[in-house]
Amino acid sequence: MKKQQEAQRRPRHATPRHSRKSAALPFPLQAAAQPGVTRRRRSAMAGGVDLPVVDLASQDLRAAAASVRQACVEHGFFYVTNHGVDGALIEAVFAESKGFFDLPMEEKMKLQRRNHRGYTPPYAEKLHASSEFVGDLKESFYIGPIGDSDLQNDLNQWPSEECFPSWKETMKWYIATVLDTGKRILSLIALGLDLDAEFFHKIGALDCPSMFLRLLHYPGEVNESDSGNYGASAHSDYGAITLLVTDGTPGLQICREKDRDPQLWEDVHHIDGAFIVNIGDLLERWTNCVFRSTLHRVVAVGKERYSVAFFLDPNYDTVVQCIESCCSEADPPRFPPIRSGEYITGRINSTYK
């Protein structure tokens, strides 16, 4: 009986499907996550979600693309395996991350966030505007596009090499490696939209893309005054795709129907060695809501949690407008064209108000 229950919880591999689902999804973009939306919703739990698993080592690119499309239409979240990022490198990133977050607060605050880079303490971010709490429980560290230190155009803040001799090089290597994985996923997404595999390259979205690595730490114990608060309150990601790896501690939940009342939240289970990938708002806009930018959050589980999120977003000047294959006379574009940087900057600024 126990083995049967475990099998039921185990994520499935998506069955390739080439038919397109209707673009007429029953919710507007960002209905529950945009700044200014204050209507509180009831919530319900439905256990674990059965997310598709996409094997990036598959030789059948069309079948893999169909699997990615199905995942983006139905869930907005999926797993990728055989992604090419070495497990030892991932372990090194977690070790360096934990070492930094273990520092006294006064040491961490020496690298407090500037230019959206550096350390963000607990309660400094509020991802859901209507949250009754001052801010979310998590602390984090942002690393943005890495400039040339010789030209003094690197806006990132780095811990001292004396205390963390391998920190910077570990993060740089991880960013370069996971960027390659992200580009492969975007090629599959393009194929799944009946576009050229190099579509996002050809429109300039991946010419100096806006990419950020975010190290995250969620506390194990919370004060009584924080009862009901979230490690990360409900939100959707802002850009194209996010590649997430966790330490295996649960807490991540998704809500596939933003407008449902009560909202139905489902646990995302951990798969050793797999990335969790989710779609962001700009990809939802590109596809006219054919693909969904899914609402998600992290709940407190009474145990420390570490994760590493890589946000792969278009070049700042990329104009995001509806892809022709995703609209028609009966279903015209739902959103006006917008520059990637303008949209993402607006969303980031609202998080820190």
UniProtKB/TrEMBL annotation:
Gene3D superfamilies: B-lactam Antibiotic, Isopenicillin N Synthase, Chain (2.60.120.330). Transmembrane segments: none annotated. Pfam families: 2OG-FeII_Oxy, DIOX_N. Residues 1-26 are annotated as: Disordered. Residues 10-21 have a biased composition (Basic residues). PROSITE patterns: FE2OG_OXY. Residues 209-314 form the Fe2OG dioxygenase domain. Belongs to the iron/ascorbate-dependent oxidoreductase family. This is Fe2OG dioxygenase domain-containing protein. It comes from Panicum miliaceum.
